[in-house]
Amino acid sequence: MTFLTINDRIKQIRKESGCNQREFASQLGLTQSGVSYMEQPGSTVADSSIKSICSIYNLNEEWLRHGVEPKNIVTDTFSLDGFVDSKGGTAEEKEMLKEAIQLYFEFEPYVRQSLLNTYMNKVHPKQARNPLFDGIPDTPEELERMYPVIDMKKNKKDIG
């Protein structure tokens, strides 16, 4: 098992995001040489850099500092800016996505539902049902409704 240092983890995040050192530095408000220094084994990383990296890439600070899982922070909210930044997106792409989302919600509800249905049918098409399985319940509850459990103690009829 290989133990990664904070320096290794920073380099890993940079590479996973598809950024070179200059691009990564730009996102953090640093210079390319500053990122190069942070990636060198044994180099000290400033708290402000750690907090910036965690914020931009939605990382658990304990993971970045010490390798303690989970790597990513799981939140109930979604940050479009953070997501676009984590994918190496540009300011223009962020703006375009924000405008597209705003435009979507300006549509009448029936238009949005139609768009959603079209999207779902293209991305998650329903599988054709095999006629062999027609009449077979999909859930245990449906099975019990179709074939109720018989209490043998109450019904002492001869079954055989």
From TrEMBL:
Which part of the chain is the HTH cro/C1-type domain?
10-64
The cross-references to InterPro entries, in alphabetical order and at most eight, read: Cro/C1-type_HTH, Lambda_DNA-bd_dom_sf
- Protein's name in the database: XRE family transcriptional regulator
An annotated Gene Ontology molecular function: DNA binding
Q: Which organism is it from?
A: Lacrimispora amygdalina
Phylogenetic classification of the source organism:
Bacteria, Bacillati, Bacillota, Clostridia, Lachnospirales
Report TM segments: none
Query: Which SMART domains does this chain map to?
Result: HTH_XRE (SM00530)
Signal peptide range in chain numbering: none
